């Protein structure tokens, strides 16, 4: 990995927890319950929070944009989530959830100059992102910007996160990996244990069939680990993903990126230190 692409990946590693905490925070669970969503599992709220910028998205659109989720799992929640609350109500509740979550986790910085500076830098990167053909990034970028710096920070982080994710899907498709194959091959490079990927809803038979397809292509060993060819393919996917995510960060310049890294460190520690996020995820952060 080049030094420049390493910096791009570093920015993702630092910002991802600031986005993802919404899906695990008790404040978000309370807001989801107030809308009428079941909260004994996190998926009704997850699909509503993440898909709401698309409008009342149907099953097909969510399957395409969320990619790694089994279509049967998506079908359990979409479009049913919109019969509980309209996307506009979900977006308003999402903003309240982020506000409450950040005030709980980042109270030390919430009204301080450092957080305002972070928000301005991340927003500058987000506004420089070319979201053409990237549906989740484009939908979030089209939302009105909140006035409060901590809310603008979450929105900017989300635009950049979805911008990267949309580019990652394009890289997977270009590499000939379908949704379940993308997970099987990712498990094969040690991104996470196969059990972690069960959260995406694929059956044991679907997982086994994907393994057989990847074995037939010479990408996977019989024990589920990637071959050298498979490892090279996954490395290419990650390289393309980093390249596709690089544009927004060029807008900050080296000085702006270094300043942002310096400022983000304490917030990153605070969010991870809260213990809300799982230690092992399907994103493979720190593993690939």
Structure description:
This protein is an all-alpha fold and 288 residues long. The chain has one domain (3-273). The chain is 66% helix and 0% strand. It has helices at residues 3-20, 26-35, 43-51, 59-66, 71-77, 81-84, 87-105, 113-128, 135-141, 149-174, 179-188, 204-216, 228-245, 247-250, 253-273. The longest helix has 26 residues, at 149-174. It starts with a helix and ends in a 15-residue tail after the last helix.
Layout of strands and helices, then pairs:
Layout: H1 3-20, H2 26-35, H3 43-51, H4 59-66, H5 71-77, H6 81-84, H7 87-105, H8 113-128, H9 135-141, H10 149-174, H11 179-188, H12 204-216, H13 228-245, H14 247-250, H15 253-273
Helix pairs in contact: 1-10, 1-13, 1-15, 2-7, 8-10, 8-15, 9-10, 10-13, 11-12
